[in-house]
Batch of 4 targets.
Target 1
Amino acid sequence: MLGSRLKFLSRFLAKAFGHRGLTHSGVMLLLAAVVLKGLMGPESLRGPWGALLLGAGTHIAADLPTGGCQLFAPLSRSRLSLWPYVRTGGIGEIMLLVPILCLLGWAGVSGNGSVPGHVPPTAHHARLRRHVLKDISFSS
């Protein structure tokens, strides 16, 4: 989406590094994480920069079944593809995408409990209801 809005940047990167080349490299993603951690400390990976790296990583993972990526660029120019005959928007992508989305949905719903220090939203609602109902008085 960003590439379609910033065509000049997209064309420059594609011409300079190849389509799904260095910009879709797991090695470069790991290097970016190491540099960020070194310059800004480990906490930087838990904020917006970490979210950006996570988004880039999931984008690379999502591109692996649909044509592949040069995952180990610049160390190797070989393209890795997990399912080589899947076309973007085709039936193969749907056959791959639906089970993955179901699995992710199931994992999100049946997680291993809450994160330490995190109060689930239902607890917030229960507290709110309790306080609101306690403060309401009804005329007799």
Note: The longest helix spans residues 91-109.
Target 2
Amino acid sequence: MTETYDVVIVGGGAAGLSAALVLTRARRRVVVVDAGNPRNAPAAHLHGYLSRDGLDPRELLRVGRAEIEGYGGEFVEDVVTRIRHDRSVELAGGSVLAARRVLVTTGLTDELPEIPGVRELWGSDVLHCPYCHGWEVRDQPIGVLGGSPLTMHQAQLIRQWSKDVTLFPHTMDLTDDDLANLRTRGVDVVPGKVERLLTEGHRLRGVRMADGTEVPRSAVFVGPRFVPKDALLGTLGCERDENGQVRVDRFGRTSVSWVWAAGNAVDLSAQLVSAAGDGSRAAMSINAELVHEGVYTAA
């Protein structure tokens, strides 16, 4: 039997849960389908979320789910394999959910540099966002691993949290202007290719270069490649912008009239708190349209 909902939300992170909270409080029948693999799972604490700074990310999700269930929201632990044009949502477990509207908040994947030690320490001593983690490693010896288009900006930005910042260009070629700007900012540069990150007791202790040089560091920032999890939106034929990202308006509406998207699936730079805001805004837009639809269909 196919279950019918006002809104099916795909993804149960900050954006999806915030949307679900708004919609359940608006007395909509809502289900959140989530596979249980949040992007920030490796992190012990979340930061920059007003009144929740330092909280375990899993606790935020637990509390959010409890609030939504208190208003009658439902959760399904499963993977959405397809969203059909008849507004049916197919799940890997075999269930099919019918939706008047769909909100996709599937997030993104961080593609990390293939350097030994990076993946093992990801979320603890290997970091990417100084606004999220800079305070926790302030005044420590910090490294920045090159290879991202944002490497130069990242190195200069992180200098704000520590006087001891070293850039490892790795495979990057720095110009004379780059080197001059780094010197002006007080950032050291260790040329050459990085061989691996060195660990001791599951903590970072340094960076080993291909020539055998070892540079002590207690934290390293990297620039992952952000890959949006937008395949479901692509299959539906949602329009993309010049950068290949799914295009949404300021309320999260896609080019498919009954589909919205929010969070990192459509905004690669969204922080936890801004993703939550995007989800909330999308939810109000969805509810407003359902109200408008009801005026003409008595639904």
Note: The mean pLDDT is 95.
Target 3
Amino acid sequence: MSGTARPGDPDRETVNGEAADPDPAPAEPEGGESACWLDRVCADCGAIQDTAPFARCARCGAPRE
């Protein structure tokens, strides 16, 4: 029975005149892995240090907590 699809029939939905893909592939995530630089952040001034762990902040001289 071709041509008998009713509007809203999920088996016959179309997108821009073409049949909709019933199982579209998930979108690729944008960007790379998230980086956690928390062990490089000075608690006093917020500066990010070149190395981790660090003993003293290169900007303000505060000791690492």
Note: Residues 34-64 form one domain.
Target 4
Amino acid sequence: MARGSVGTLLASTHYVWYGKISARMKTSAGAGVVTAFILLSDTKDEIDFEFVGTDLLTAQTNFYSLGITNYDNGANATISSDSMANYHDYEIDWTPDQLTWSIDGKQVRTLKKSDTWNSTSNRFSYPQSPARVQLSLWPAGLPTNPQGTINWAGGEISWNSPYMTNGYYYSQFDSVSIDCYDPPSDAKGNGKTSYKLTSKNANEGDFEITDDPTVLGSFLASGLDMDLGASASVSAGASKTANTVPGMSGVGPGNDNHAGDSSSSSTAPGSQSTSSGSGGSGGSGGSGGFVQDGSSSGSSGASSNVQPEHVLSGSLFAVVVAIIGLCIL
């Protein structure tokens, strides 16, 4: 996380609809610096591990339903040793009925879906929609943020902190493991490609497993128009590409490290001159950093047979991420 930036976000290109997800990691440190390992759905269901840089012996656990802020949902867990100096294993075990957070193999918090009933909304305020795995480092202590956020993050961030190395704050992720469970037994549909949202209520029963396509035709496309911006010359079955990324005239750092600045076109000695290309683009505020592999097996009594690639689609939500390949376990 460089000076003046908003940090870095890595997000999986596949979605998980219940599973065991773990990250072996070291956090960053310093006032205003937050390291995060979370699950986030397109309907803003969220499951969190977050680490404030002024308390390296505490992991904050949290959950949200449909993005509704409830400050009573958070709970702290103790880490056995300095989270920046030492690797620790953080695990989220998410099932239709229960959610468990663990650190180094020890359960530190359990949430039962049955305990989240909200009589006002007449639904369970429990994360229950397909979600992506996200790893991030972000400056919650920016002076432009709300004061409550700054206070939670331990104060305003300093860009001259001894915790910075070569001009960067940093966190380290040694490995990430994603073990998908089977979809709920009463899940609708029998496809193998995507999850489709069928109601704005976004309850577990409002998702259907389909064979609808999920790969966007270009960086301009969305879930509402899959082929927007695709080249007219693309043949059936061929890869679809876009000549440009919205908001960018080129790629790479450009002048003064500003992405997309292409005012100069010099080439290095011995290299070939190339035309302007396209950079990657992610959705929900981030870019895809890793792809879930297909080599995991079921655990905790949940089997893993064929798992679909997960994405929300339909008229209610626009999908703005390009999905790559199938998730076959």
Note: Residues 147-152 form the longest helix (6 residues).
